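[stage:ingest] chain + small molecule (iron/sulfur cluster)
[stage:ingest] validated
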Amino acid sequence: MAAMAMKKLAKKAAKKAPWRRSKNSPAKAPATQKKMGRNTGLELDPKRIEELLKRLQAAYPNAECALHHRNAWELMIATILSAQCTDVRVNLVTPALFKAFPTPKAMAAASLPELEELIRTTGFYRNKAKSIRGAAQMVETDFHGEVPHTMDELLRIPGVARKTANVVLGSWFGIAVGVVVDTHVLRLSRRLELTKETTPEKVERDLMQVIPQARWIDFSHEMIYHGRQICIARKPRCADCTLERLCNSPDKTWSSH
Ligand code: SF4
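[stage:predict] done
[stage:export] tokens:
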């Protein structure tokens, strides 16, 4: 009797959340389910994605860019400085940097040693100093001192790759042309089986296919918050995770299913 009841319960749970794996799950997804995604089966089920997005939004309703900035210019420079560095560290450095060089024109005329000294603690400061001065010079000469708001134009600026361009476009201009993929978004997207790729460009391409465009901007912020607070790199806090029931990652430290 008990075994029958357990079987019934498992059947009911599978019907409610078919993406969840159990020891009774078939080794391979049925052919009709494969078309839901290019991975193994149900991880890209639109219902699962919808539930993921719903839970992320509920957990982080006010998620926003953690880099302090007052305009697109400051956000672009802060994002360039955030490579291989924490946002907290960047936020410690930028007040003095923008006080000394408040505009693209001022920074374009700065000497490299001056810039290096101000941003030293963010790491890779020699390359970053070259990038931010180069960015200032191009914004000043090619864009009349205004940060452009198209992906193509932003990608011409020294030190700006897709991540920085997406941050500026999404967080300042409110334009969703891509998904910000930083280290947290990349790690979580793989754990949540939204992609199997390992490079930011390819992960972004996959995310753009499975996440509705209207959610691209907030989704990145929410994933970054979740990656910082719960789904941390070394030891994810799965017992506290709002996505746990939807997650089948081998990195899990605790599982309810
Ligand atoms: S269950 Fe664990 S591994 Fe999965 S998303 Fe949550 S914290 Fe990350």
